[in-house]
Design brief:
Bound molecules: phosphoric acid mono(formamide)ester
Distance between the termini: 18 Å
Largest sheet: 5 strands, parallel
Number of domains: 2
CATH class of the largest domain: Alpha Beta
Shape: globular
Radius of gyration: 19 Å
Helix content: 25-40%
CATH superfamily of the largest domain: Aspartate/ornithine carbamoyltransferase
CATH architecture of the largest domain: 3-Layer(aba) Sandwich
Structural class: alpha/beta
Strand content: 5-15%
Order of helices and strands: HEHEHEHEHEHEEHEHHEHH
CATH topology of the largest domain: Rossmann fold
Number of helices: 11
Number of strands: 9
Strand order of the largest sheet: 7-6-5-8-9
Oligomer: single chain
């Protein structure tokens, strides 16, 4: 693949190659000297048109660990505010001899659009409610690390599926690797097309948790929310919030994941998020190695 625009453009071999490469980089970043010189001739621009903590910092660190030159752009402090278009913005940045663009944008398909109009490798760091491919890769990588493999595992994605790019990319990635996937949440926050992807819907949280090996808990995305979709926050927490009592009554120890940022006390309580069942910070740690792998593999296609 020429770019990383979504998991739907990958196959199982692509994912295996990314994970094998990430295994190597994970070992590298645990050494006293955490850097390799591989990409010292490559320049990467991180363009963030939407807010981010984890993805932005993780990409920047991954790029620096590979010795690439890095420039960062946040739309809020840029000439986008004066009306400059996306293509003009990116072409001006590319005129400074940039090889790879990492972009987060609020619009679905922004990465595909960019890849059709500019001459650089594009990595989608989240496009609206569509895909967040590196998040899904680091999530699967973390499941594989914790449980030995993804194949045959039962994963439930819980919460605001409708507005979640993490859910869609995870569904594609998990299915490619032979996992069984269910979603669980209020029917108002589950898109109608989800069953056409081979994903079962479970609206009873207890049943979903009893079924699964792993629960990937999503944030309720208030910023994308239309009031008609939303049970009240209190109702949401009563029906779909994960707390220690629910987990302790399951009679088995499931793995808890969350892509962050967490609404503590809404979709998950602190005693669950911070428990030994949670791999939330392992996900963040693995994000750097997985992003190093993605960048490294794409950079091998650049003539230099
Ligand atoms: N998981 C994730 O995408 O977090 P950020 O929005 O902070 O990047």
């Amino acid at each position: 693949v020429e770019h990383l625009l979504g998991i739907k453009y990958l196959n199982e071999n692509d994912i295996n190659l990314i994970f094998k490469t990430a295994d190597h980089f994970k070992e590298v970043i645990n050494r006293p000297i955490k850097k390799v010189p591989s990409l010292r001739d490559i320049t990467i621009a991180n363009l963030f048109f939407e807010n981010s903590t984890r993805t932005k910092l993780s990409f920047e660190l991954a790029e620096k660990r590979l010795s690439a030159d890095v420039i960062n752009f946040s739309a809020g402090q840029s000439s986008v505010k004066k009306g400059e278009t996306l293509i003009d913005t990116v072409n001006n940045i590319l005129a400074m001899k940039v090889d790879i663009v990492v972009m987060r944008h609020g619009n679905v398909g922004a990465g595909v659009f960019l890849s059709n109009h500019v001459n650089a490798k594009i990595i989608n760091a989240g496009d609206g409610t569509h895909e967040h491919p590196t998040q899904a890769l680091l999530d699967s990588y973390s499941i594989r690390e914790k449980l030995g493999s993804v194949k045959g595992k039962k994963i439930v994605i819980i919460g605001d599926i409708l507005h979640s790019r993490v859910a869609l990319s995870n569904i594609f990635a998990l299915q490619l690797q032979g996992a069984q996937v269910k979603v669980c949440g209020p029917t108002t926050l589950i898109p109608k097309y989800i069953t056409s992807l081979g994903v079962e819907v479970e609206t009873n949280l207890k049943k979903a948790l009893e079924w699964c090996d792993v629960a990937n808990v999503l944030r309720v995305q208030n910023e994308r929310m239309d009031i008609k979709y939303f049970p009240s926050t209190r109702e949401y927490t009563q029906l779909f919030g994960i707390n220690k009592e629910i987990l302790d009554n399951l009679g088995k120890k499931i793995v808890i994941m969350h892509p962050g940022p967490i609404n503590r006390g809404v979709e998950i309580t602190s005693d669950v998020a911070d428990s030994d069942q949670s791999i939330i910070l392992n996900q963040v740690e693995n994000g750097v190695a997985v992003r190093m792998a993605v960048i490294y593999l794409l950079a091998q296609q650049i003539k230099r």
